[in-house]
Amino acid sequence: MSRWDAVPDGKAEDQAQPKRRSRWDDMASQPLSSGISQSVVQSNQTYSGEIGVFATPQATPLFQGKMGAELQTPGPLSPRRAAIEQAARSRWERELDERNRPLTDDEISAMLPESGYKILEVPGDYIPLITPARRLLATPSLSLAGDEFYSLPEEVSGLSTDIPSEVEGITIHPEEQETFKKILTTVDESTLKSEEMKEREFLTLILKVKNGTPQQRKTATRLITEKAKEFGADIILSNLLPMFMLKTLEEQERHLLVKILDRVLLKLDDAVRPYTHKILSVIEPLLIDKDYFARIEGREIIANLSKAVGLQTMIATMRPDIDSPDERIRNTTARAFAVTTVTFGINSMIPFIRAAFATRRSWEARQTAVRIVRHVAEFVGCGVLPYLGDLVKCIQAGVTDEAVQVRRFTALALSELAEACAPYGAHAFKDVALRVLESLQKEKSKTRVAFLKCAGSLVPLFEGKLALSYIKSLSKTLVEEFSSPDDEMRKTVMKVVQQCISSPVESEAILSNQLVPKFFESFWASRVTRDRMSANQLVATTAELAKKVGAPEVVTRLHGFLKEKDISLSMRAAQAILRIVKNNSLELLQNEAAQLVDSLLFAIQSSDNPIAAQSAYAGGDRELQNVFVTCFGAVGQALNVRFEPFITNIVAKIYHRINSKDANIRQQSADLIVALAPVLFACHDEDILNQLYQAMYECLGEEFPEVLGSILGALKSIVNTIGMRKLNPPVSDLLPRLTPILRNRHEKVQENCVDLVGRIAERAAEAVSPREWCRICFELVDIFRTPRRNIRQAAVNAFGFIAKAVDPQEVLSVLLKNLRVQERTNRVCTTIAIAIVADQCQPFVVLPLLMNEYKVPELNVQNGVLKSLSFLFEYIGETAKDYIYSITTLLENALVDRDLVHRQTAAATLKHLALGVFGLGKEDAILHLLNCLWPNIFETSPHVISAVFDAIDGCRVCLGPTRILQYTVQGLFHPARKVRDVYWRIYNMTYIGNQDALVPSYPTLENDGDRTYQRRELELLF
Amino acid sequence: MAKHHVDLMFCRKQPGLQVGKLCDNHEGRCPICDSMTRPTTLAYICDECNFGSRKDKCVVCGANGSCDAYYCKECTLQEKDRDGCPKIINVGQSRTDDHYHKKANG
After folding, report:
1. Does A381 touch chain B (CB under 8 A)?
2. How far apart are CA A257 and CA A268, in angstroms?
3. Coil, strand, or helix at residue A1011?
C-alpha cells in the first residue's frame, strides 16, 4: 500500500519513525541560500525552535483517528459507500422508470370513453424489449403531477429509511444522509452545547446552499459568510471539506461548495492554518480538471489560501508530496506550488526550487521542481523575465539528467520559459541552448518531441549569426522528422517550422533542403487536417511560410487542394488562402488568378461537400464558418480590378443558384453577394450590382429566416456600395417591404433589417413618407424586447435618424408612451432612445416634453424621465450648460424624494451634469444640487451609495476639491465611527483625485507647544 | 463590465505601449464605466496583459479583440484613465455560475 493510500495517523507515525527522513531531504553539495536552516528542512514534523524561511510557525497537523478518513484516496469501496452509490444510481433509474412508466388500465379508462374500446389480449409470443440502451433513449415524460401518479419510494438496501429525508422542506438524498445525519435527528435544543447548536445551524445552511432554491441558496451563502468567524474554522471546515469527497457530487454542487470555501477563507484568514493540508487535498484535483472554469476556481482558492496561511505553511504542507511515487499527486502539487509562487512572487520561491532540484536520490523531487518552473512560466508569461536567469540556472542541469522523466520535463519547462520571454532573454539560455541540440540527437520518442519543441522555442530568442547557426543545425533533424508517423511529433515539427521561418535570418538558411515542397508533401494531407489542433497549426505555419517565400508560390500550391473531395482538406486550404491574402499582397499572374478563382468556384459549387457537412466540420470556429465565401470575397478584394474578367461568369452562377430549391445554396449565394459587392463596385459594374439588387428585392418573400437574413445582408451591402439614389426600384418601394419583416423574431433577420432601416433613415429619409416612418417607429419599439444587445443598439440608433428626418415630436410621443411599460429592459432602451433623439435634434425639443412627463404621478414614468435625463446629459456633454438652470428644480425635487431610486437616478444625472459643465461657469447650480445630494451620504443600499459617491466625485471635478474638503472636515473627527467612516471615505476620494490642489485648502493650525504645524510658503519652496 | 460586476478585478499594473482591444460585443464601451458616449483617451494596457495568447484579446471579456479601447470623456476628466492597466484579470462569479448552470441544465 502506498503512503498516500494509508490513513494518516499522526501518533503511530510519530512513534514508529521518530526521525524518518525523506529522500528528498538529502541535499546535494549545492548550498542553500541564507535563511534556510538545515534543521527545519530536515525535520518535517517539528518546527519548534528557530524558524527559517521555509519553516512554519505552526506544525502541519497530522490527522488523528477518523479525522482524515474522508480525505484519503478512495480505494476499494467500503460496503457503506457502495450502498450510497447504489442508492444514487437506483434513485436515478427509479426516476427514469417513473417517467417512462406505461399507463395503467385505470388511468386509460379514466381518459377514454368507457364504450367503443376493447382491451386486446397480449400475444403469447410477445417479449418486451428492455435493454439499457433503449431505456436511455426513451423520452422522459413530465406527467408526474397528481396523486394517482405518486408511488412510494422503495427502501434502499443498506440505508435506513426511518430517518426523515427533509429538513425545512429541503430534500436530502440518501447518499447525503451520512453527511447531514446530525441535523436529521430531532433533539431537544435546550440540552445542546453551544458548539453543537452552531454545527447544526451551519449544516442546515450548507444543505440550503447545496439543495435549496436559488433564493434560499443566496441567503444561506450570505449568512455563512457573515457568521464565518462565529462558527469558527473547526465547525466549518470539518463539515465542508468531506463533502468534496462525496462520490455523487455533481459539478455544479462542487462549484457551490468551492464558492463557500472561497468566501470562508477570506473571513477566517489564518484560522484555517491547521486545515491547510486538508483544503489542498480537496482543491488540488481541480487544477488538472478538464474544465477551464474549474481550473481557474482551483487556482483562485489556492492563491487565497496561500495569502491566508503564509508561504511557510504552504511549503511545509506541500513539501512531503513533491517526491510522492504517485504521478498525479506530483503533478497537482507542482501546479499548486506554481500558484503559490505566483502569489508570493517568484523571488521568494527560487531557493526552494533550487533545493528541490538538488535532491540527488529522488528523481521525483527533481521532476516536480522542473514542473513548478514550467507552470510558473505558463501562469505569469513575460512576468518571468526578471527571474529568467535564476530559473534557468536552477533547472538547466536537468537537460542531461539520468532520469528520462526529468530530462523530458526540463525540455518542456525550458521551452515554456523561452516562449514566455520571447523575444528577450537569449543570454539566459546561452549555455543551455547547445546542450539542448546535443540531447535532441540522442533522445527517442516523447522526450525527443519535448527537446525539439524546446529547440524551436529558443529560435525566436536569438539574432543574427547565432540564430543562423542554430537554425542550420536544427533544420536537418526537422526535415528528417517530416515523415514521422507520431501525431504529437507532427504538431511539434509544424510549430518549429513556423518558429524557424518567422526568424529574421536569410531565407536560404531555412529554405534549403527543399523545405517548402517537402512540407506540402508531408503535411497537406487528410490525416493532418482531420485533427483540429494539427489543422490549426498547419494553417498557421502555411500562412507564415507565405510571408517568407511570397504569397503566389504558396497560393499556387494550395489551390489544388480546394478541389479535393475531403472536406477538411479543401476547407483548410481555403482558410490558409484567406489568411495569406489578408496579410500579403497577391501578385498572381493572370492565368494563376484564373485557376484560383476557378478552384474556388468549384469548391463552392461542388456537390461533394454539402454545406451542412461544411458547417459540421467548422464547429465553433468562426473563421471556418462559410470559409469558401469569405475566402472568395478576400481574393476578389485582393485582385481588385483584375477581378473583372471573372465577373460575368460568377454573376451568372449566382443568378442560377439564387433560385435553387436548396435553402443552403440560396443562403450561400446571398452571402457571396455580400462578400463581392465592394469588388463589383471597384470594377465599376454598377449595372450588375443594380441587377443583383433587383434579384434580391424579389427574394424578400423568402420563408427561411436564415436565408432571409442573408438576403437582407446582401441588400444592405449593395445599398452601402452604390448609394440610395441610383437604386431601382427606389428606396420608397423598398422600405414598405421591410416594415413587415421587422416583426420577424429571428435574430439574424432582425439585426440586418434594423440595420438596413437605420441606414435608409440616415441617408435617404426624405424619400419615404413620414407616415411610413411612424409605422416603423412602432415596430422598432417592439424590437427593444429582443435579448440580443446589438439589435437593441441598432434600433436605438435608428430612432435618432428617424427623429431627425421626420417630426421629432411624433417619435417622442411614441417613446414617452413606452415609458409606462412594465419590463425594465424595454424602459431602459426607451430612455436611451430619448437621449439619442435629444442628441440628434437638440435638447430643447426633448426637455420640455420630458419635464412635462415628470408630472405624471407614477414611479416608473418619473424614474424613466430621470434616467432619460441621465443618459441625455451623458450624451450632450458641454451643451448641458444652456439647460442646467431649467432642469435644476426638477433635479432638486428628485434628490429630496422619498423614493430611493429617484435619489439614485437623480444622483447619476447630477454626476453627468457636473462633468458636462466642468469649467463652464455653472458652479452655482451644481453647488445647489450638491447641497441637496449631501444628506444621502449615509445611505446603505449599495447601488444608491455608489451613485451618490460618483455624483460627489463629479462635483469634485466641477467645483474643485476645496469645496468638498470644506464639507468634509466637520465630519472627519465625529465621535461616532459610522459618521467618521463615511467622511473619511469622501476625504480619501478627494485626496486621490486632487492631492496637490488640497494643499492650500487645509485649515491653518496654530503651533502647539513643541509641535509645529505651520508651514510657511517660503519654507516649502526650499 | 466591472461597473456592474463588483467582483471583477482590474490588472492595474503600469501600462506599456500596447493599446487595449475590445471585442464585437463590447465595442465602443469605456472599460471603466461602460459608457458608450464620447470615447476620448486611448486605453493602454501593460506588457503582461498583451503577452502571448493574451495578445489582442478584449480587455473586458478576453474574447478576440477587434477595435481599440477608449476611455470616455467623463472618466478622462476624473483621471480614471491614469489608474493603471484596465484589463480584467479574473473570470467573475456571474460568468462561472452561468457556466455551471448551463452545464448542469443542458
Report:
1. yes
2. 16
3. strand
Nearest CB to B100; choose among A252, A381, A420: A252
- Flag whether pLDDT at A37 surpasses 60: no
Contact B77 A874 (CB under 8 A): no
SS3 letters across B5-48: CCCCCECCCCCCCEECEECCCCCCCCCCCCCCCCEEEECEECCH
Distance CA A636, CA A620 (A): 26
CB contact under 8 A, A255 and B37: no
Closest CB to A381: pick one of B52, B77, B93: B52
What is the CA A152 to chain-centroid distance, rounded?
A: 45
Contact predicate A604/A668, CB 8 Å = yes
A296 part of contact set with chain B, CB < 8 Å:
yes
Interface test with B, best of A210, A304, A380, A382 (most B CBs within 10 A): A382
- In whole angstroms, give the CA distance from residue A553 to residue A588: 9
What type of residue is A350?
A: I
Assess contact for A500 and A459: CB atoms under 8 A: yes
A671 touches chain B (CB under 8 A): no
CB A413 within 8 A of CB A370: yes
Question: Which chain B residues contact residue A918 at CB under 8 A?
Answer: 77
Q: pLDDT of A184-221, one tens digit each? A: 777 777 777 888 888 888 998 998 888 888 888 899 99
According to DSSP H, which parts of A842-941 are helical?
843-853, 859-876, 884-895, 900-916, 923-933
Give A51's pLDDT tier (boundaries 50, 70, 90): very low
Would an 8 Å CB–CB cutoff place A610 in contact with chain B?
Answer: no
**Is the Cβ of A297 closer than 8 Å to some Cβ of chain B?**
yes
Question: Which amino acid is residue A65, in one-letter code?
Answer: G
Contact B47 A382 (CB under 8 A): yes
Structure-block grid coordinates of residue B2: 466591472
Q: In this complex, do B77 and A252 lie within 8 Å of one another by their Cβ atoms?
A: no
Mutate to test the interface with A, among B30, B40, B96 (most CBs of A within 10 A): B96
CB contact under 8 A, A420 and B37: no
Region for residue A425 given its phi and psi (left: phi exceeds 0; alpha: psi -120 to 50; beta: otherwise): left
**CB-facing half-sphere around the CA of A497: CA atoms within 13 A:** 35
Report which of A26, A81, A120, A451 is spatially closest to residue A248, judged by C-alpha positions.
Answer: A81
- CB atoms B51 and A874 under 8 Å: no
Give the Cβ contact number of residue A368 at 10 Å: 28
Helix (H, G, I), strand (E, B) or coil at A477: helix
Cα distance from B12 to chain A (closest Cα, Å)?
A: 14
* Residue range A480-516, pLDDT digits in tens: 888 888 888 989 999 998 988 888 877 666 666 678 8
Over residues A546-574, the pLDDT tens digits come to 888 888 888 888 888 888 888 888 889 99
Q: What's the pLDDT at A340? A: 95
Q: Which residues in B lie closer than 8 A to residue A259 (C-beta atoms)?
A: 93
C-alpha cell at position A605:
459549387
CB of A763 closer than 8 Å to CB of A723: yes
What is chain B's length?
A: 106
pTM: 0.77
pLDDT in tens, A874-921: 988 899 999 999 999 999 999 999 999 999 999 999 999 999 999 999
The CA distance from A690 to the nearest CA of chain B, in Å, is 31
Our separate counts of H helices and E strands in chain A read: 49, 2
C-alpha distances (whole Å) from A249 to each of A89, A228, A257, A360, B105 are 13, 23, 10, 41, 15
Nearest to A318 by CA among A284, A287, A348: A284
B7 touching A, CB under 8 A?
no
In chain A, residues with a C-beta closer than 8 Å to the C-beta of B79 are 993
Q: Could B100 and A954 be called an inter-chain contact, meaning their C-beta atoms sit closer than 8 Å?
A: no
